[in-house]
Amino acid sequence: MKKKQYFVEKIKVIGLDEGSTNKNTNSKIGFIYGKEYTLKIANFRNDEIPSNLNQIKRGYTYDPDDRSAFVGAFKETGEKVIFKADDLELCGKTILCPAFLIITVLRH
Asked: Phi and psi for 90 in degrees, rounded to 5?
């Protein structure tokens, strides 16, 4: 059996806002607490697109103040998901939002 893998190269966040870090020290473009944002796949590596975009799973990570690692997952699958910036712990943090695929196993 041969495994086929697809890689998301770039994700676009639609509707980013201008705000400040939780210390109010500077203005940045990012998520605003209490709002929702659409994360959309902009392109795949080598332009190889899976036939079923619903195989795409998303998650996010950030480093909380207690220095533990937090990993969250989106219930939605596909080309677009909604990120809800509704946790105060997220304020002032850098959030990583990788996309990954369920790998399709092929027979030859």
From this structure: -75, -20
